[in-house]
Amino acid sequence: MTSMRETNLVYQGSEHPIHGTWLSVDVVAITDDAKIVLIERSGDPHRGELTLPGGLLAAWNGETVDEAARRILREKAGVECGDVAVVDVVSDPSRDERGHTVSIVVATRVHGTPSSAAHPEDIPETMPFGHTAMVRNALRVLAQRMLTDTATTYALLGTETSSVEVIWLFRALDPSLTATAVRSRLDRCGLYTRTDTPASRSPRGRPPSLYRKA
Q1: pTM of the predicted model, to two decimals?
Q2: What is the mean pLDDT of residues 149-153?
Q3: How many CA atoms lie within 13 A of 209 on its CB side?
Q4: pLDDT (0 to 100) of residue 192
Q5: What angle do CA 156, 157, 158 make, to 5 degrees?
Q6: Sheet of 21-30: strands edge to edge?
Q7: Is 39 contained in some domain?
Q8: Residue 118 belongs to a domain
Q9: Closest by Cα among 79, 68, 67, 83 to 161
Q10: Same domain for 98 and 185?
Q11: Residue 154 lies in a domain
């Protein structure tokens, strides 16, 4: 019997001699300028189309979901990420024509912006493998969890952040929120404490406030 490692989801047209389920990790990576990292597929199926960075979990190497997300972003998008937060599990057996693939959808922050990154409103409507729906649902879940769920908040913002960083993140998650509303949420969330130290020097106006884990 051929193993997951040997097949590695190699495209075989309409032939599916291996009947099993694969486990993949698909990454919703948010850049500093509130874009979503996308990649152009280099192989079949859907060569040349934009998708989320994703790939099989290397279970045969004892890889964790966090490790898989970092590897996938490094290898496929050329960016590094910090902590990740699991936001969804997608098990639709029809989303990948190569076979039944259960996807663990994770979110993370990255520095640097690959050329194919896109603002949420510019995400293609019909990305392969159900990735468009994955992005939209992930952003909705993150908008609900940010500054309320401890694990998700610290994964995306860390233990030290600034008001400006939080405002920029919410531009990707929920553009309808004003900067004033985001600052109010940040001050009331109980996960961070505002310090007397400015986050950075600003050539004009008041520098952003620095917040540390409460």
Answers
A1: 0.87
A2: 97
A3: 15
A4: 98
A5: 105
A6: 54-56, 21-30, 100-110, 81-90
A7: yes
A8: yes
A9: 83
A10: no
A11: no
Is 68 strand, coil or helix? helix
Q: Are 13 and 90 in contact (CB under 8 A)?
A: no
Q: Domain count of the chain? A: 2
Residue 152 buriedness (CB in 10 A; 0-12 / 13-18 / 19+): buried
Q: What is the pLDDT of residue 13?
A: 55
What domain range is 71 assigned to?
Answer: 1-10+17-145
Same domain, 34 and 99: yes
What does DSSP assign to residue 176? T
pLDDT at position 2: 40
Is the CB of residue 187 less than 8 Å from the CB of residue 194? yes
Over residues 43-61, the mean pLDDT reads: 95
- Both 1 and 53 in one domain: the answer is yes
Enumerate the β-bridge partners of residue 209: 198
Q: What is residue 204's predicted lDDT score, i.e. its pLDDT?
A: 43
Return d(Cα 132, Cα 177) in angstroms, integer.
22
Q: Is residue 98 part of a domain?
A: yes
